[in-house]
Amino acid sequence: MKFLNVEMMHPRDQIVMVIDRIYKRGMTTTSGGNISVIDENGDIWITPSGVDKGNLKPRDIMRVKRDGTIVGPHKPSSEYPFHRAIFEMRPDLKAVIHAHPPALVSFSIARTIPDTNVIPQAKYVCGPIGYAPYALPGSEELGEVIGKEFAKGFKAVIMENHGTVLGGSDLSDAFQRFETLELCARTIINAKTIGQCRRLSDEQIDAFEDQIPRLQPEFECEMHSSKEREIRTEITKIVRRACQQGMMISSYGTVSRRLKGNDFLITPTNKSRWDIFPEDIVLIKDGKREKGKLPSRATWLHQELYRKNPEINSIILTQSPYLMAYGVTGEKFDVRTIPESWIFLQDVPNMPFGSHFKDRNEILDTIDKDTPVVIVENDSVVVTGDKLLQTFDRLEVAEFSAKSLVLGHSIGDLIPIGADEIEDLRKKFLS
Ligand SMILES: [Zn+2]
User: Fold this and answer.
1) How far is the CA of 123 from the centre of ligand 1 (A)?
2) What is the pTM of this model?
3) pLDDT digits 0-9 by tens, 17-61
4) If you measure from the C-alpha of residue 23 to the centroid of ligand 1, how many angstroms do you get, rounded to a whole number?
5) How many angstroms from the chain centroid is the CA of residue 65?
């Protein structure tokens, strides 16, 4: 199975799939990191010690039975003591991920905790973050200091001069928390390279939750047209690709595509983006939702953008670590970096936090064919376009441009393409 299904998959298969994702997304090395799942018998399934994380097989996963008996061909992870300590302290947690992802390790060396108030979703998914003082890897003492932090109620802990450890109600929940916290850490580090990080107050974050529109009324969907089925597959493929390319994380991001008139298909809420299927996509027809499905909480914004802009046929709303650096600093993202960036994006304005709330007009008044992308401060990037693949490409171009600017910041003055050259590009490519 290529997709994570925590209800139907054996713990060893879940662990192999998640470690593979973590490795491929550059969030662990061959030797570092370990994952465990506790089952209904109290048996702990855990990654082995000293086996290549890029090439792990289900049969490599070790089982430590409730009575301490070890089953399997290797030794259990050397960090088994703290995995066990977390499960002992927290019966609500059934899965644990420990790794050394670069941005969170930066925080652990700087001996500080990422401030999740920079992005509402990060605060919501990760909760408050604990901090465990340094102790010898693999020691009972490390188990004790980590167990103590989890006993305080944290589900995510920074380990001093080491890395991070996170728990979840299942492995999908733990992975979402892990990915979200690492994105938050990357965003903060990138942001501090180019300016001052702005944090939201708890009141501002609550204001988002308070304004989420009531669910649309339902309609009974009698049959799915060929066109609709085609779009469902198209959206699914783009969402998975966005996750693989680091343009989207499991806990955040919405993709939609116009069907006909103002009807469109959109991704659901509360579903890991890595594991989206065509049948999860929700049809919105005449402002009503397909019966029994919960569309993205950003459906209102997508709907109004389609109503107002007949030339827009697809929309991606997401968070990526370099564009979000502009989002959390409020610095101007100048796309006159290379010809391709300007041709694809032209101007990318920053919109204030809250402009994406229901009944606000700022984004609707700004996005049009000359301004296809906006950054919503401390929240997201909104990318629009005609074909979905074109919109995705536009997102990638924007993220790459933001990356070049952030990385280039330390070299010296970054000089945009001049006004005359921009005029030449306009004449040749846009008129
Ligand atoms: Zn470690």
Assistant:
1) 24
2) 0.95
3) 999 999 988 898 888 889 999 999 999 999 999 888 778 999 999
4) 14
5) 34
